[in-house]
Amino acid sequence: MSALLRVSLRQLEYFVAVSEQGTMAAAAEHCLISQSAISLAVTQLERILDVQLFLRQRSKGLTLTDAGRRVLTDARRLLQQADELQVTARNLGQELSGRLVVGCYSTLTPYLIPMMLEAFGKAEPGIRIDFVEGSVADLHELLRNGTCEVALMYDIALGPDLEARTLYSIRPHVVLDISHRMANRTAVRLSDLADEPMVMLDMPPSEELFRSIFARAGVTPNVRMKTASVEAVRALVASGAGYSVLLQRSAARISYVGRPFAACEIEDDVDAVQVQLVRHANSRLTHRAEAFANFCHRYLGAMGAHAPGAS
Q1: Start-end of H helices in 124-205
Q2: What is the reported pTM?
Q3: Whole-angstrom Cα distance, residue 52 to residue 30?
Q4: How many CB atoms are located within 10 Å of the residue 57 CB?
Q5: Looking at the domain covering 172-271, what would its CATH class be?
Q6: Which CATH superfamily is domain 95-160+277-306 in?
């Protein structure tokens, strides 16, 4: 009998629980079983696979080995497929149901997640959406290790092992203090702002994108300060600390502290950035994820220029 046939889903479930919880005791509490049962399952799994999954150190507890990290990715996918099998059987002739984890780039979260939770929840009430947010690097890792099936993000710095489906496009724009001499313009050239202080959004890969925009316009920005918060950028601009370039547009042009700011188009030749739904190229999406992907494409694609943050 092959090792695969001797591996049980329960063993894989307990192995994943230990990996995520960090200790046997925490995993046992999470799974509502005894610590000895968890320990036995992991030991049996290591014996069947003939590989050490954890380094066991008294002072540091359990640490995944390189082999353990690889097995963890496959274990998550197998458990996901098993869950999909159960859901498929339950859903024969019925509505979709179950849990779907969706990733979202941090700056897109306030624009897309609340709206999609509401709209998709009405379309598919049997599917429960849980979302995780993070940087591009964070989302890449979450897609690769199977934590989330799909992620909403920009078409910036995507790895070759990821596949993307464009939902809508968005153009960078300039934000200015309301008292700025160019605040009443509909569009400005970046060269007109070259000598003025800039507040840079410092969240990879946003900074690289914005610097490439300036480079294409032949301008070197005078970066006065950086922040990883979009709302901090808007607040600093509204207070007169400088101008900035952003992607997502605020429906209300007012900072958290009540100060207004202006938004202008960029006259220079600037490429639009695509908002995309991204998946791992080698993964097979569950029916839940397929339903969500198709809904995003229909719903957001139909909104076009009126999509959240696009105008």
Answers
A1: 136-144
A2: 0.69
A3: 23
A4: 9
A5: alpha beta
A6: Periplasmic binding protein-like II (3.40.190.10)
